[in-house]
Amino acid sequence: MGLIFQNISKKYGAVVAIKHAEMEIENGEVRAILGGNGSGKSTLAKALGGLISKNSGEIIFDGQSIDFKSPKEAKKNHVIMTSQELSLFGNLTVEENICICDVPLKGIFTDKKRIKEKSLEILKVMKLENIATKKVEDLAPNQQYMVELAKALVQEPKLLIIDEITSALYREDVEIVDDIIKDLKKKGCMVLFISHRMSELYAMCDSVTIMKNGETLGTYPMQEKTESELLSLMVGSKVETGRQHKNRQAKSEKDILIKAPHIKIPSYGTEESLEIRKGEIIGVAGLQGHGQTDLVNSLYGNLGEIKIIIDGKEVSIHNSRQAVSNGFAFISGDRERDGTFQERNLAENLAAVKELVKHEKIGDSRSVLDSFNVKYDNPGQLITALSGGNQQKVVVGRWLSTKPRLLLANDPTKGIDVKARTDLHKEFVKLAEEGNAVIMISSDDDELVNVASMAECSRVIVMYEGHISAILEGDAITRENISAASMPIEEKQMQA
């Protein structure tokens, strides 16, 4: 029976979000939806999941025409949607959140024993039993997204929509998700998989539908198209994804920009040291929670005073304002919490750092927005009117317009489409080529390998239990080497 979209359209005033979308999916099929930010992927998913109403067309599910008026109605029919905009309650525990859509009752009271049993069943599959009683607000972002998925799985979906929740996940999380999807396929569950990580699409999906400007351009078997071919279809022009290995300069040939001899890693009670060279891009890798975020937060003054040497001069940084005054910039992948001012418009979001901290004029907002290919109507519209990826482009534009000496980026491309991600990498390389430096954390090892290959001077440092377990340079920067350095304990056990 499967799922059929016929001539689906959706408008928001004069803006056409979806235009005559067509698609068919079979039972047990995992279908990737690939398109740029604002192409209509999430809008199509929300129309299916009952979050928004379509203007025209028909959706047929298991041979029946459906038009869910709410997510609750969709869930009753086992159509479950997970989203990058988390639907979790931070003040409740993990197990309470997992069962929130169908709370087990004992008479008129909540059956706490059954809640524990139901949640632990799925948490064991996801190797997350240890967080069952923790409050969601106390979890790391990747754990929150795994809980969002667990909450969907406990509802026994016949059709599961995964909208960008893997963008915050680490390699070990993605491997668990891969196993879960394989199991869902065996049960005949259909999966709509929206992600900008191409390696995930090739690993998990059977087929791919390309969307652009609200239209479905075509559907192809996943393994029959190369990454370059898919991206070319997505953007409407030829795109080459082959990595451009520049002739990297040995790091010793570059002047030192910053010496940081005492970087505190509070999560492990450790310290690390780092020398950052002009023109250098340093990727930071490792399994989730091994000190990567502490490293950049310490350098930015978020974890108390840090004494560093900038261009031979000792400087004490006590907070983020002082860091910005010394030419630092910080981009977070968590745009809702750390990136955007949601009640403000685009122009105000762009001006926030330059005008409020550096007391300089931002200039023409439109030129900044256009230079980062932001899809918008006018600089006066609220930033929340933009798609998630376009919001992140505004955040990036805000910081790069300050021309920082050191850019600290914590998973900055989360939720950004593949083409925009490449554009952002080019901006980082350009910043480095001007004699500045970039330190970038990514939960995607392939991304770090790619960025390093684009820069003349680059390293990837791998963190394990609060220490730098490896420093990779040149041809040693590979996904395999990053993976090995992320889990050095395995090597020790093998030798023993």
UniProtKB/TrEMBL annotation:
Return the protein name. Answer: Sugar ABC transporter ATP-binding protein
Q: What are the UniProt keywords, alphabetically?
A: ATP-binding, Nucleotide-binding, Repeat, Transport
Report domain ABC transporter positions: 3-238, 251-490
Record CDD domains: ABC_Carb_Monos_I, ABC_Carb_Monos_II
Q: Which GO terms describe its molecular function?
A: ATP binding
Source organism superkingdom: Bacteria
Cross-referenced InterPro entries = AAA+_ATPase (IPR003593), ABC_carbohydrate_import_ATPase (IPR050107), ABC_transporter-like_ATP-bd (IPR003439), ABC_transporter-like_CS (IPR017871), P-loop_NTPase (IPR027417)
* Pfam families associated with the record: ABC_tran
In terms of PROSITE patterns, this protein maps to: ABC_TRANSPORTER_1, ABC_TRANSPORTER_2
